[in-house]
Specification:
Elements lengths: L1 H14 L9 H4 L1 H10 L2 H17 L3 H22 L6 H17 L6 H21 L6 H26 L5 H21 L1
Helix pairs in contact: 1-9, 3-8, 4-5, 4-6, 4-7, 4-8, 4-9, 5-7, 5-8, 6-7, 6-9
Length: about 190
Amino acid sequence: MKRRILLAAVAFVTSTAPAFAHLDPVEHGSLLAGISHPLSGLDHILVMIAVGLWAAQIGGRALWAVPSAFVGSMALGFGLAMTGLPLPFVEPAILASIVALGLLVAMAVRLETTACAAIVGIFALFHGYAHGDELGVAGTLPFSAGFVIATSLLHIAGIGLGLGISRVSAGRTLSRVLGGLTAFAGLALILG
């Protein structure tokens, strides 16, 4: 039974293409466009959930410090994009973040909370830059508030998932499998 579920999950993840469609800020408003942005691409969803899962695996201060570091650094990256400063390798770094964070969860890596926050913070800089680079005609403040809200909610979902599955007997294994699937999905996006 477990093998069938795992195979179905792998088939689902590998057959899913990134949804690069975002709401038009003119048509839907800047706040809603900002909220929809992280929710409309598999790359965003996988990373945000992985950050929450990893924070749940580590526990303690990491539950709030690791996701907060991501959100703060993402806002900094957004600001960099708004200044027009170039940041190389944005898309490759975003794709690498899926694989790396998935592997960190899969291997249940435990580091000091500050080190974990630094790792997610580096990746978040690129995610934030991508948000700013794709701003278009949206209003800066409402759009940024929207993607911060959506990102935070995805982190909370990842933490909730991690804490929830930790209560079942195979929770540690299941969490690691989810990390592996995330890394595998990242590889599929890179190769796809």
